[in-house]
Amino acid sequence: MLTEMFCAYDDFCLSFDRELAARALPPRRHAGGRPPEMWMSEVMTILTLFHESRMRDFKHFYLDVVCQQMRGAFPSLVSYPRFVTLTSRAVVYLVAFALRHGVGRCTGVSFVDSTKLPVCDLRRASRHRVFAGLAAMGKTGAGWFFGFKLHLAISDQGELLGMALTPGNVDDRNRSVIQKLTARLFGKLAGDKGYIDQKLFWELYERNLELITTIRKNMKNKLMLIENRAVYRARGIIETVNGVLKEGLHIQHTRHRSPMNFISNLFAGLCAYSFRPQKPTATVQGLA
Fold first, then answer.
1. What is the pTM of this model?
2. 55 and 93, same domain (yes or no)
């Protein structure tokens, strides 16, 4: 897995650097300083391996695991403070890789949901400074939180199809978010009651995407096609994926020192999930 991951990152970095060089403005003068000792693909690989290690302290992982046990795979290792500096440079590459190569193929059956990513204890929200002006108060079925929302669309094979990060107070039915999540989708899309919106249903239906939800208690009952009910009953797969990302790959914690650290941790976890050979799957019975 290490070799496969590094090769995928290295090929991507080479093509991405060519794109950046072709679109960048010519420098006014020669840039000073020496080039980084480590390749960007090595930095991305180490960040991704940390999420698969099930360890919770990256400094301990880098010094005791990478530097002691994996020096043969990474011969140009740098000091920990220097690696932290390189991590901030890797954010753009991680985000671009997750959005380009971390997504799978739509099968015609998709699921959409959002999950909270709190950045501090709710009682400390009023004096929180790291994400001041970025994070916001939000509310889910589990209660209030201060932080962000991660919006995901996945296939019935557990592949990520779309992702978006918003402050915690952004509604799940936000048109900009929905557009990003469903740009590549077709067929049937199952969501929870937070996506009930008749206007949204018809907007997606005109794009060959049928939104399937249940009804609230104060709404009149309505019939649902058997195949649509089968799709909705399989919606628990996206809850499983959220659990894998938050508990197994540790994309959620409240110890971030900067917004860049938060973004690198989140997208390294999403990349780690995309590399997993076995993902949660759902079997939809009765769907032709």
1. 0.90
2. yes
**Tokens representing residue 283 in the block:** 């079997």
Residue 217 confidence (pLDDT) above 90: no
Are 17 and 91 part of one and the same domain? yes
Instruction: Answer yes or no: is 260 within a domain.
Output: no
pLDDT attached to residue 195: 92
In 10 A of CB 146, how many CB atoms? Answer: 24
For residue 30, what are the contacts with CB-CB under 8 A and spacing of at least 6? none
Alpha-carbon distances of 137 from 79, 122, 131, 149, 204, rounded to whole Å: 37, 9, 12, 10, 29
The CATH number of residue 221's host domain is 3.30.420
What gap in Å lies between CA 283 and CA 69, rounded to an integer?
Answer: 41
CB count, 10 Å around CB of 254?
14
In sequence order, the β-bridge partners of residue 145 are 138
Q: Which residues fall within 8 angstroms of residue 170, CB to CB, at 6 or more apart?
A: 136, 138, 149, 177
Q: How many CA atoms lie within 13 A of 99 on its CB side?
A: 12
Quick check: is 126 in a domain? yes
Phi then psi for residue 274, to 5 deg, are -65, -25
Residue 17 shares a structural domain with residue 127: no
Q: Name the DSSP class of 170.
A: S
Does residue 273 lie within any of the structural domains? no
The two beta strands, 187-190 and 209-212, are: parallel
Q: Within this chain, do residues 71 and 173 fall inside the same structural domain, yes or no?
A: no
Q: Is the pLDDT of residue 188 over 60?
A: yes
The pair of three-digit structure tokens given for residue 50, joined into one six-digit string: 């940390």
| Cα dist from 140 to 65, 84, 170, 284, whole Å | 38, 34, 11, 27
d(CA 40, CA 59): 19
- Which structural domain range is residue 123 located in? 109-252
CA 159 to CA 147: how far, in whole Å?
25
Rounded distance between C-alpha atoms, residue 213 and residue 210, angstroms = 10
68 and 113 fall within a common domain: no
